[in-house]
Amino acid sequence: MILRWVLKKFDELTVHELYAMLQLRTEVFVVEQNCVFQDMDNKDQGCYHLIGWQDDKLVATTRLVPAGNIYNIPSIGRVVTSPSIRGEGAGRILMEKSIEECYRLFGKQPIKIGAQLYLHKFYSSLGFSQTSEVYLEDGIEHIEMVLP
Q1: Which of 77, 58, 71, 66 is nearest to 13 (CA)?
Q2: Contact of 119 with 111, CB cutoff 8 Å
Q3: 113: how many CB neighbours lie within 10 A of its CB?
Q4: How far is CA 47 from CA 7, 66, 107, in A?
Q5: For the chain, domain boundaries
Q6: Which fold is adopted by the domain 4-147?
Q7: DSSP state of 98
Q8: CA distances from 43 to 47, 56, 78, 88, 126 (A)
Q9: Confidence class for position 37, pLDDT limits 50, 70, 90
Q10: Average pLDDT along the chain
């Protein structure tokens, strides 16, 4: 699978990139996961956004969050891949690229995530360790994890 990666600050996103990113996040987080929540939380503006394109379709994205915006250390959030490419390793590629970009942007330091519990094994395989008890966020079980 060949994806074209773009990394931009929020203010650098074109309206078309922003629309595609919000559309993909809504497709997965709201529609597929049947979760009504406020995706646009006023945190995107202070973040970098990694977006992965397959031809002219946005199929993967993450939000790279500087320390102090959500947690006291950098974090990766709003991790999403399109259902159209699932099972092809895109999620792993997305996270590996996100970790690499976090280190480049914020220096090599721990990275925190708020992970959906069912993805514990996946994130553990990338080196993340669970650092919290299970908690509910928008009706979905989550855990905090840190990549040391």
Answers
A1: 58
A2: no
A3: 25
A4: 10, 7, 15
A5: 4-147
A6: Aminopeptidase (3.40.630)
A7: H
A8: 7, 26, 11, 30, 25
A9: confident
A10: 96
pLDDT 10s digits, 114-129: 999 999 999 999 999 9
Question: Is a pLDDT exceeding 80 seen at residue 1?
Answer: no
Rounded Cα gap, residues 26 and 126, in angstroms: 26
pTM (2 decimals)?
0.95
CA 94/CA 90 separation, integer angstroms:
6
pLDDT at 88 over 80: yes
**Distance (Å, whole) CA 63 – CA 48:** 6
**What distances in angstroms separate CA 46 from CA 4, 20, 54, 84, 129, one per listed residue?**
23, 19, 26, 29, 26
Q: Which residues contact 63 (CB under 8 A, 6 or more apart)?
A: 43, 44, 47, 48, 49, 76, 77, 78
Instruction: Answer with the residue of higher pLDDT: 85 or 38.
Output: 85
